[in-house]
Design brief:
This protein has about 400 residues and is an alpha/beta fold. It contains twelve helices and ten strands. It folds into two domains: about 270 residues, Aminopeptidase (3-Layer(aba) Sandwich); about 110 residues, 2-Layer Sandwich (Alpha-Beta Plaits). A hairpin with an 8-residue loop joins strand 1 and strand 2. The longest helix is centred in the C-terminal third of the chain and has 23 residues. The protein binds zinc ion.
Length: about 400
């Protein structure tokens, strides 16, 4: 790092551009996390590297006044393999770091924490690190979690899909397909039967639960004259209803078992990655932030509208929202309808629109945090709303 690139000299926009340029994929964000820690340190935060034993995670904390309440901002800084920061996590990083710094300047009491959460996109060893952190109790002493995510619209209270990925392996018996077909048992047959049975299940599921199931046949044999003795499928099972998701997985397992019996093959099932939860929406918190956006003449749809929109994806932020009042605010950096994880969103993540939206989101999040520290009634209402869901 040259002298004019010293951490303390970074402002919110230089930081966003630098993370965009560093372009580090999930679980490998070494330089990015180092830079973020350096900036926080230079602003009086106490930094813990390798938070929760995750190499590119960190925790940075600054206590103001009596240290209560406790608010955490979550930073993401992983790029997408191959394309770069096309999900705009460079902006999430800057938003979290500078919202925390601004909050610590605005408040008289509170503990402000930034948690660096690697690999949201799930490309490496620490995929979905927020889930690991949630399970290890990282949010135990935190009263409020704030985050943000760039996109093609401003929004609060978007629902996300629970998702679990699976790998199913069928084992059959190899044989010469012309000379001894009677002694062969095809693992590929089991895989195709499974694929078709899953498609038949689609008609008989709850329509309101946003059931999505996507799968491929990854391996299906080696030569056409040899009975395939091994076939591998991978599937993702998603829904906006966590209990129903469990039911759907059970039905999927019955399908796999049934297809193995029918084809006289054996099978094994492996979970891939962690279970991403649905988002627990906090209405009070969502509306508090929406009011702040409306005050700034920013068009943000009402919660009832957003909540009923079709959820598009899954995020490990959802798991955090299940254990502590939390909200990830969507901020608009591109025209509506812009496809994400694309060349367009890659450019949008370093555009002047992004710079303006980033400045706004930093002010909105730090104003929200300030209000939270000062307004006991708001804190109680947010906690009540969390506990009754
Ligand atoms: Zn993202």
């Amino acid at each position: 790092m040259s002298s004019n690139e010293r951490a303390e000299n970074y402002d919110y926009w230089q930081l966003a551009l630098k993370i965009h340029q560093l372009n580090e994929i999930g679980s490998m964000e070494l330089e990015s996390s180092k830079l973020l820690m350096g900036i926080l340190q230079s602003h009086g935060f106490n930094v813990t590297e390798r938070f929760m034993d995750i190499p590119t995670a960190f925790k940075a904390e600054r206590v103001v006044g009596n240290g209560k309440p406790s608010i955490a901002f979550l930073a993401e800084y992983d790029a997408l393999p191959g394309i770069g920061h096309a999900c705009g996590h460079n902006l999430i990083a800057s938003s979290a770091i500078f919202s925390a710094i601004r909050t610590s300047e605005k408040i008289t009491n509170g503990t402000i924490t930034v948690i660096g959460t690697p690999d949201e996109e799930g490309s490496g060893e620490w995929a979905g690190s927020k889930i690991i952190m949630t399970e290890r109790g990282a949010f135990k002493n935190i009263d409020l979690v704030l985050g943000s995510h760039p996109g093609d619209q401003w929004n609060v209270g978007t629902q996300s899909l629970a998702v679990q990925d699976f790998e199913v392996t069928f084992k059959g018996r190899a044989a010469h397909e012309a000379a001894n077909p009677n002694s062969g048992r095809s693992a590929l047959d089991a895989a195709i039967l499974t694929y078709n049975a899953v498609n038949m299940m689609r008609q008989h599921v709850r329509r309101d639960a946003n059931f999505v199931m996507h799968g491929i046949i990854k391996e299906g044999g080696t030569a056409s004259n040899v009975t395939p003795e091994r076939a591998v499928l991978t599937y993702g099972v998603r829904s906006t209803d966590l209990n129903y998701h469990t039911e759907l997985v059970e039905r999927f397992m019955k399908i796999v078992e049934g297809c193995a019996i029918a084809t006289e093959t054996t099978y094994s099932v492996k979970k891939i990655g962690l279970l991403f939860s649905t988002t627990k929406i906090n209405k009070i918190l969502s509306n508090t932030i929406r009011d702040k956006l409306l005050e700034r003449r920013i068009d943000c749809p009402p919660l009832e509208y957003t909540f009923n929109e079709m959820p598009k994806g899954s995020t490990d932020f959802a798991n955090v929202s299940q254990v502590v009042p939390a909200l990830e605010v969507g901020f608009k950096i591109a025209r509506e309808g812009t496809p994400w994880h694309s060349r367009e969103s890659l450019e949008a993540a370093k555009s002047s629109n992004a710079r303006d939206a980033l400045r706004t989101i930093i002010e909105v999040l730090s104003d929200t945090a300030k209000e939270f520290t000062e307004n006991r009634k708001l804190r109680e209402e947010i906690a009540d709303d969390f506990n009754k869901r």
